[in-house]
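Hi R.,

As promised on Friday, here is the backbone we talked about, encoded as structure tokens. Could you run it through your design pipeline when you get a chance and send me back a sequence?
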């Protein structure tokens, strides 16, 4: 029997269900038909909200970046110095990837990176995430905590280092990190290593 949803609820439910599937499978391996079947609705009902798999991924990615930016803002508010802010950003990023891998895998999925027509909402919120890191580094350079260099280049390097670590973590590539303590220590060690490359 088909399930009925109030206006807007199906869109939210489809996003939530897809995130669960991606998190469980470890990859964005789904079809809109599969999502419709999981929600017990017709596939045409899902197509009313998302024109394609890529479109659904885009909405999940946008939601993910909004959540990541919120985590950034929350953690930065607790930090005082540029070094503390940088560590807070890196920690928030990695912990977000570990706790929300369904969103995280969507945010950087190849289908979205190669899209010819990217949704401006996704571009805007994604750039905001990167801008928060750039602003943190610029603050550190201005206060002479970090050595003076091109903040955009530095931010790309730092982001790449944190992103690569996060992907390896959620893919289970660090088999020696089995306990919460060992994971927490590895995160701090990695962030400290990245920070040392910025210090004067």
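Update: got your reply. Pasting your designed sequence below so it's all in one thread:
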């Amino acid at each position: 029997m088909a399930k009925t949803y109030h206006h807007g609820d199906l869109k939210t439910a489809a996003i939530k269900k897809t995130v669960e599937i991606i998190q469980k499978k470890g990859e964005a391996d789904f079809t809109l038909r599969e999502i419709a079947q999981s929600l017990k609705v017709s596939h045409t009902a899902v197509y009313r909200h998302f024109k394609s798999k890529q479109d659904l991924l885009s909405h999940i990615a946008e939601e993910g970046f909004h959540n990541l930016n919120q985590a950034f803002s929350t953690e930065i508010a607790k930090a005082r110095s540029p070094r503390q802010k940088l560590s807070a950003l890196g920690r928030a990023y990695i912990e977000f990837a570990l706790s929300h891998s369904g969103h995280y895998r969507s945010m950087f999925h190849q289908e979205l990176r190669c899209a010819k027509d990217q949704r401006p909402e996704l571009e805007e919120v994604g750039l905001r995430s990167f801008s928060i890191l750039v602003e943190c580094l610029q603050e550190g350079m201005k206060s002479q905590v970090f050595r003076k260099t091109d903040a955009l280049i530095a931010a790309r390097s730092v982001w790449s280092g944190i992103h690569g670590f996060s992907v390896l973590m959620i893919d289970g590539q660090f088999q020696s990190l089995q306990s919460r303590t060992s994971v927490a220590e590895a995160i701090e060690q990695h962030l400290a290593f990245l920070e040392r490359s910025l210090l004067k």
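One thing I noticed while checking it: Residues 53-76 form the longest helix (24 residues).

Thanks again,
M.
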